[in-house]
Amino acid sequence: MPQYKLTYFNLRGWAEPARQLFKLAHVDFEDVRLEPLKSVENGTPEWEALKPKTPFGQLPVLNVDGFDIPQSAAILRYLGRKFGYAGKTPEEEAWVDAMVDQFKDFVTPLRQLIMAQRGGNAEEIEKVQRETFGPARDNLFKILNGILEKSKSGFLVGDGVTWADLVIADIITTMEKLGVFDVTSAENKKLTDFREKVNSIPEIKEHNEQRPDSVV
Amino acid sequence: MPQYKLTYFNLRGWAEPARQLFKLAHVDFEDVRLEPLKSVENGTPEWEALKPKTPFGQLPVLNVDGFDIPQSAAILRYLGRKFGYAGKTPEEEAWVDAMVDQFKDFVTPLRQLIMAQRGGNAEEIEKVQRETFGPARDNLFKILNGILEKSKSGFLVGDGVTWADLVIADIITTMEKLGVFDVTSAENKKLTDFREKVNSIPEIKEHNEQRPDSVV
């Protein structure tokens, strides 16, 4: 079995679905967690020392027997395929990829909302919600709800859990923590049930109960 | 052999590397090209009719024997793996994925520049160049130059061309056409030579000579 080391900040963020994949597959890994940055501009001494040694100057990085893999989706796909959570056919794999890319198109508006919330200006938060975050979320949710409506398994692709499910379930939690996903709302029922289904998988449930929690 | 149909606008854009992959692999496909939109808000009747039938309300879409695959990177990865241009090991495949995700992180600033150029306000263009596009481009180019410096083959990953090379070579052309990549600049030499290497592959050369050209 290869030696895996996953390096990220002490946040869920871009690394959490990878940590969950290790747990799902019952594979040991070294879970290296750096102190989170206060902002992109404000590095910590620990991160400033590590940064030039990473392939792209970013985290997460997965190290496999000494070989570094950067970029969160590339890491997830690599582990998903190794461990059997990437789809069962080339077509299922393409749909897993497409779901995650669709989610990634939503990251810029989500980041704008997070920045506005940190800024604390109510007018700016309202503007971002109305003009960018809101429409982007509505578009993503419409796609996700349509897919879940047709799904026989209750998962996004095929008949079992994939890394796309982990990514989407985790982002629902992030949005809930940011106050922009209401789990009691009827229109969010499908997505709330979906997250519950993912988080009820015994390995995921145990992982989530034991992990250090964070807003993002 | 499956029947392939690739639907996109009559632009290079997000579909061009997929068209090049078909040519590289000598595989026939139906190259459906819709009239380009004037803006995201200004649909054409043709696109408005097709849009609700696409999986995510977006193009490109690849249809394989009646099965739709959305999202450009998912399409490229699917074809790249089918045709043998996705890397030769799981680790090479992960690096191809990581290169393209790193490029995708650059798309938001690139889009901001395109929007500013369309707006035609010189001050706004200068501001975007200085604050967002410029730093993002410098970061991406630093990564690409570092990788090309270490590459023995002259390609980004492994010893042959992959779909990541096609994506990066094409975006260099787009940046050149937008006036933000100077092929005569010494500091761009590695990237200029790299693009030339990709575009000199006989199938790519023939394809590029025959294609309808566009700025993006």
What does this entry look like structurally?
Two copies of one chain form a homodimer. Chain A is α+β, with helices and mostly antiparallel strands and 216 residues long. Chain A folds into two domains: 4-85, Glutaredoxin, CATH 3.40.30.10; 90-201, Glutathione S-transferase Yfyf (Class Pi), Chain A, domain 2 (Up-down Bundle), CATH 1.20.1050.10. Helix content of chain A is 55%, strand content 9%. Chain A contains nine helices and four strands. Chain A has helices spanning 16-24, 45-50, 72-83, 90-104, 107-119, 122-150, 163-177, 189-199, 202-210; strands at 4-9, 30-34, 61-64, 67-70. In chain A, strands 2-1-3-4 form a four-stranded mixed sheet, with helices on one face. In chain A, α1 packs parallel to α3 (72-83) and α7 crosses α8 (189-199). The two termini of chain A are 31 Å apart. The relative contact order of chain A is 0.14. The model of chain A has no long low-confidence stretch (mean pLDDT 95). The interface between A and B is medium-sized, with 29 and 29 residues.
